[in-house]
Amino acid sequence: MAEQDWIEVTRQVNTTPQRTWELLTAGRNEWWPQLVFDPREGAPLRETWETEQGEGFAQGVVLEVVHGEALGFEWSDYGSEPALRARITLVQASEHTTLVRVTEDGLGDGPGSEALKAERIEGWTLHLRDLAGLVDQLNAPTPPYGVALAATPGDSSSAIELELPEDLAPTLLAQRILASLTTSNEPTRLDPLSEIGLTRTPDSLADGKDARATAARTIVAIVGPPGAGKTTFATKIVENLERGGVKAAQLPLDGFHLSNAQLGRLGLSAVKGAPDTFDAHGYVEALRRVARGEHDVYVPGFHREIEESYGADVVVPLDATVIITEGNYLLLDREPWTLARELCTETWYLEPDEHTRVDRLVLRHIEHGRSPQDAIDWALGTDQRNADAIAASRGRADLVVRLGSAQQPRS
């Protein structure tokens, strides 16, 4: 009787098929970072690893994508032939568990095939173990995931406060956005944190924001003081959303800096970066056009190397479902900033470690031409005054994200 030329490995994970799919696609970097692909048929796929002789790799192509159910691909080590065909299927085992089944065929039945099958079984078993381990960490009610922090004494804010590892926070929050979208990519109200361990609905979401969240697009505003890492954070969220099959785009406030010539005319050069040094009305109008979703919207982009903006430098394409906008002053309680907030589905406030934030600012200023002493003076002077004003607005956010130290690798 001929031996079978395929293997099968299964593992139960303690979450839903939809959430498992998100971790398999958008969140894959957190448990299998060596594997790179876009979840679309025909997309190239590549895995790399280190060997004593150098870098090893397998490459192939995605053959099948059934959202939330199945992913199929063919691949081979070092691009050799014949290729192996792998298929990952997700089957709901109970309300909160999923059976992940991996089959791989093309392993042959001749000499050496049993050793190859054992090797492939061991590899897939380890990968599924890492996936299940990440799910269990995300489900854990203890730090660093999904922790509701105590309110500041005297603070009447209804914002939820979380502490998340800085390296994982963009992935976790992108998963939250993905969970709010239907399979047809039509946005709905953001699910209040259930995907990262919380179930409480903030009053600000339950009262007054439903109409905004059910608009044609999901618009999330990221706010924080200078040096909080808003732009990098927004970029990573967009990348995670794209890997999850959702078209996303950024709309940065920085592009709406007044030019240096206008700052000079207004006598504001010494306080560049303060609220009055932005074309806030222009930003609101651009955000309003984005919210209407009638055409591509071009906005200016800021270039730190010249401390100026280029017009029409950034595009928010019409087919973008999720827009991530970020800036310092989107939570200020005065017009026109309040008008911007009303156009957003939700606002998040980023709060990094203060020493880390200031160090980033000083390094940024040095990289763009200031002397070390000038960089320190600006970071602790003008930047700090702006940071204090921004921090006073944090209570108006729907979600405050305290960025903790990076998550340690799993052993």
Oligomerization status of the protein chains:
single chain
From the helix content, strand content and strand pairing, which structural class follows?
A: alpha/beta
Give the CA-based shape: elongated
* Helix-residue proportion: 25-40%
Short description:
This protein has 411 residues and is an alpha/beta fold. 31% of the residues lie in helices and 27% in strands.
Structural notes for this entry:
The protein is an alpha/beta fold. Helices cover 31% and strands 27% of the residues. The strands form three sheets. It has a seven-stranded antiparallel sheet with strand order 1-7-6-5-4-3-2. Strands 8-15-14-9-13-10 form a six-stranded parallel sheet. Strands 11-12 form a two-stranded antiparallel ribbon. The longest helix is centred in the first third of the chain and has 27 residues, at 113-139. It is elongated and about 80 Å long. The two termini are 42 Å apart. The relative contact order is 0.13. Mean pLDDT is 83; it is low at 141-156, 182-189, 191-215 and 407-411.
